[in-house]
Design goal:
single chain, alpha/beta, 434 Repressor (Amino-terminal Domain), six-stranded parallel beta sheet, 12 helices, 12 strands
Length: 344
């Protein structure tokens, strides 16, 4: 029996061979209803796309490289859970296309840079998704110089325009500080990511501006930068709570550092709502299970991850990067009044 071909599907549907070919490759030039007709016909005639042949003809790999800085197997850190969720969202966004995501786990920025150089030089993928952006990111310059399609999970400050998805860190921190000031807090700590990351710079600038608007002086001892681990959150609370004038509120950049902050509260004998409060950014909604549950700015991780997948598809089709930029404002979930009520 002769193997079904694209020509077979064209005869079955009455569409042109070119239209059938584009539909099978999920080209945006084909309307969704037309693609549905082609897919149904392909299933009826038993057509299977020969990806190896397509790769040889087109020069494409049909791979999207997701480059993520992940903790090592012995570090037992929280980040691995978030990366699994992020990859799932990207994969779901690609599932109706011929593209599949390949994970490149790296240990640090230098490995990420070397990996991108290799992928671009050897054309090991057709597009790249990368996180952990810096204010002036050399990885972006490499991809732009090669006209290589990419999307970043995170913004930059000094690079040329590029496709990105990120939380609106500036507005989130402004609103978080203003809300805490309204509730009587005057000493507000910022538990921030590594200082060279772009979103850490954005958060710090927004924090300082919000303090200025509130008429409060900036105190550098109330800001801590490091990898966002539970250990970092704990160490920050242990250090800051011993200050002569300790903070009454801690804004943590993720739920892992917030969990560690609670550990610091426990060790120091602090009570949430009596001595100080903790707020956080949350993307897994784990904070609802803390005791007590804390106020968060919640951005479900599937939202940015699916958008990353959608944007890389559109970028690989040639859509300009300026049209593929999204800042998503996390949703405030108030689980506590967050006023400090000293014990009488």
């Amino acid at each position: 029996m002769q193997r079904p071909t694209i020509k077979t599907i064209a005869q079955e549907t009455g569409l042109s061979i070119a239209t059938v070919s584009k539909a099978l490759k999920s080209s945006p030039q084909v309307r969704p209803e037309t693609r549905a007709i082609v897919v149904a016909a392909a299933e009826r005639v038993g057509y299977e796309l020969n990806m190896h042949g397509v790769q040889l003809r087109t020069g494409k790999t049909y791979q999207v490289a997701a480059i993520m800085t992940a903790p090592g197997p012995k570090q037992q850190e929280w980040e691995g859970v978030e990366y699994a969720q992020l990859l799932s969202g990207i994969s779901w966004a690609l599932e109706d296309s011929p593209y599949r995501v390949s994970l490149y786990a790296v240990r640090n920025f230098e490995e990420s840079l070397a990996t991108i150089r290799q992928i671009v030089a050897l054309k090991k993928a057709d597009g790249i998704i990368v996180s952990g952006t810096r204010a002036d990111d050399p990885r972006i310059r490499i991809m732009q110089a090669a006209d290589f399609p990419f999307v970043t999970y995170g913004t930059t400050i000094h690079n040329d325009a590029h496709a990105y998805v990120d939380a609106d860190n500036e507005q989130m921190i402004r609103r978080s500080v203003a809300r805490l000031v309204e509730r009587g807090h005057r000493r507000i700590a910022l538990i921030n990511p590594l200082a060279d990351l772009s979103y850490a710079i954005t958060r710090l600038a927004a924090y300082r501006q919000a303090l200025d608007v509130a008429g409060l002086a900036f105190d550098p001892v109330l800001v801590a930068h490091d990898r966002l681990t539970p250990a970092f959150g704990r160490e920050s609370v242990l250090a800051m709570s011993r200050l002569p004038d300790p903070p009454t509120a801690y804004i943590c950049a993720n739920e892992a550092s917030a969990l560690g902050a609670f550990s610091g509260f426990h060790e120091r004998g602090l009570v949430h709502g009596r001595d100080a409060v903790i707020n956080a950014t949350d993307d897994l909604n784990v904070s609802q299970y803390f005791a007590p549950p804390i106020t968060t700015y919640f951005l479900p991780i599937h939202e940015p991850s699916e958008l990353l997948g959608s944007y890389i598809l559109r970028r690989m089709e040639g859509e300009p990067p300026e049209a593929l930029q999204a800042l998503i404002m996390p949703r405030l979930i108030e689980r506590s009044d967050d006023r400090v009520t000293p014990k009488r």
